[in-house]
Amino acid sequence: MAEEFNMDGMLDMFLYESGQLLENLEGIILEKQDADCFDEADINEIFRTMHTIKGSSGIMLYDNITKVSHKLEDVFYYLRESQPENVPHVELVQKVLAVSDFISGEMDKIREGDKADGDETEIVADLDEFLKRLKGEIKEQGIRLPKENKHKEPSQFYIAPVASEESHFYRIVIHYRNDTEMSNIRAYSATYALKDIAEDLLYTPEDIITNEESADVILAEGFYMLLQTKSDTDEIVGLINSVEAESIDIEEITAEQFGKGLAEISTDVSEPISIDLGGEEPKKEPDKEKEKEAVKPGDYVVKSKETGKGKTLAKNQPKKQSIISVNVEKMDALMDLIGEIVIAEAVVLQNPDLQVPGLDLTNFQKASAQLSKITTELQEVIMSMRMMPLTNVFQKMRRIVFDISKKLGKDVELEVIGESTEVDKNIIEHISDPLMHLVRNSMDHGIESDPADRTALGKPEKGKVTLEAKNEGGKVYISVRDDGKGLKKEKLYEKAKNNGLIGDKEITDFTDNEIYRFITLPGFSTKEEVTEYSGRGVGMDVVVKNIQSIGGRLEINSQEGHGSEMTLVIPLTLAIINGIVVQVGNSRFVLETASVKEFIRLTEDAIVQEPGGEEYIVLREQPYPFIRLGQKYQLSDSQVQVQDGIVVVLEHEGEQVCLLIDKLIQEQEIVVKPIPSYVKKVKGISGCTQLGDGSIALILDIAGLIQDEERS
Amino acid sequence: MKTLLAEDDFASRKFMDKHLSQYGECDVTVDGEEAVGAYMMALEDGEPYDLICLDVMMPVLDGYQVLKAIRDIEAERKIPQDKRVKIIMTTALNEERNVKKAFELGCEAYSGKPIDVEKFEQVLKRLELI
User: Fold this and answer.
1) pTM higher than 0.80
2) DSSP string, A562-628
3) Chain A contacts of B93, Cβ < 8 Å?
4) Hey, what CATH topology would domain A328-388 get?
5) CATH classification of B3-126 is 3.30.1130.10, yes or no?
6) What is the ipTM of this complex?
7) How distant is the Cα of B96 from the closest Cα of chain A, in angstroms?
């Protein structure tokens, strides 16, 4: 192929994303082609798709795509806003498909490196006509026409580089005759001659103009160049055209070799040459050393530029960035299998057969160390494959903030920090909704409606909501912060009491944190009037449930008058946790290491029994609910006496619970597996895992245990 | 249209200079620091640039640093959005993250090298510079 189009990252992404969107779009259309009409979700989806394609093609300057998608977006805007009946569905389907075909066609052209020169006027006119009829129909049905769909012109543009032929890479070595004077200047002339055809040029020695001593090096070792160009060897020789040159060797090399730079390639070949020249070798070696050390101020600029170019090269090599979309189920299956390998590895390496005394395991140990290394890498790779930046989720929040601030008439700005933080794909799916709730709550309940209230407190009139994500110690912290009213403890307490959520305890019975937690109770809402966005008292409990389902927790902090902060703390990945294996009777359980506060040995008289049968432990004058795990799960052979077992204090979201277990086994990495569906759901158990000896251990769900305890 | 061109590669510089000069005065700097200096000077003289073309890989300060510096100066001097200088990055770095970064820092357009002159002009028109 004479003209291979060298795709670059930006264009790649545009084609990939738009391709995905179109594929998705066609999926919807084809599924619904025989239906009577599109439902609301479809209309929204198609509208969004066209909106996105319009935006990105605008940035990429593909005007015809922009115009067509713009028109179709308009059509779906009216469908979405007015929801007219009797839309000619078959015709609409055809229109959408025509647009999709047009855009696909143009994208094929772009992919081939051609111009996207398709004529859009016919399709646009066709859509215009359709839109006109649609509007007429809408009016006839007595529905008010919505406001014109406002389009924001793109304000940033990307100009793709012109398509170019495929480049060749050459290594050129020039040897000058030994009597050549100022060979460094000759070498410079050679580089200068090549500049016109060179896309990139590296050479050594580097300081040929500034350092006269480089002439000796060139005479001794030859002058090395790496050249990226579209020209062929004859042309290069013709350009160098130096009478002093004894020999000019040109060798075509691969892009990878080129990327490695001169250092590696030249050392590869410099050896035979230095043998040829024998005696001179010791003399010039110190020279070279000196050159390296003596950095003059002026040199740095040139060098930094050269290395900069070198780096670019490595990046710009004609490797096609290939992206494939993979079914998430397959990724999950792979993740599962890798989990199995980790378990199988433990089964092999901790196999009881190896415990025979006197067995020489030296080679086995070596091999197993290698195996462990590879499985660890395997885990890391699959994790990184599943990692996605939070950018998209945060992007959605911008939109929400914008919409709500318009609707509520509050002037609020959104600050986003750390949107490139990456988390597991599964987690992203689970936090989108909770995050939306939190942002809405901050906007609605947090920020004051009256700017005067804000200025009175010395705050700027404009409210501020901050969305921050960070990655710390295997956990992701995502916080939503506002500088609004903050939570009022008294108000929360009253509300909870009036709703009968806390019985008749006094406000002093609760810590600040416990009071803040009231807002996460089901059926709690402090806002007197319910708005479109929040205040229905569903929400916060759903948020907490969602977050708990992925092993995370919600932290609430607030300062009255200054704002509140809600932080989601989520594990980086769901599949592997650090756990402590404990034994109760013949069963093994896993406790997540992070939730274990302490282990203690107690005697029976430390236990306080309530009339209802519930048991408590008083530790440092604090009462903790006490659960005998063996009794709870009816494990017949477990320790009944407290003094024979160990008490574990566990904490989850500020609430503690104590468990009586028989003994501790070990701490290890645990691959979390769901409980198979044929087993009835057991309270307080969130999953299971296989241990090194092949036995099964159940993973305790601390949050579930605490809840269960509170309910009883 | 008054243009500032920051470009360290001679060939590109010559090409761009020639091309941009047809629309009016075109100043040229060879590194990032000089570009910021030139921008400041023009600003102080009350004759700010309409367009700045920035290479990314430059000595002393790279294009991103220059872009950020200029936007920071504008923010600090409270220059309104529509009065801000239009900035086009001109570079061989075409990976998406490079482009996104530049957009994030607030450039108006990002042109891959070799420059597509036709589209470049199209953008100048969109930016209402010519």
Assistant:
1) no
2) TEEEEEEEEES-SSEEEEEEEEETTEEEEEEGGGEEEEE---GGGEEE-TTS-EEEEETTEEEEEEE
3) 312, 315-316
4) Helix Hairpins (1.10.287)
5) no
6) 0.82
7) 4
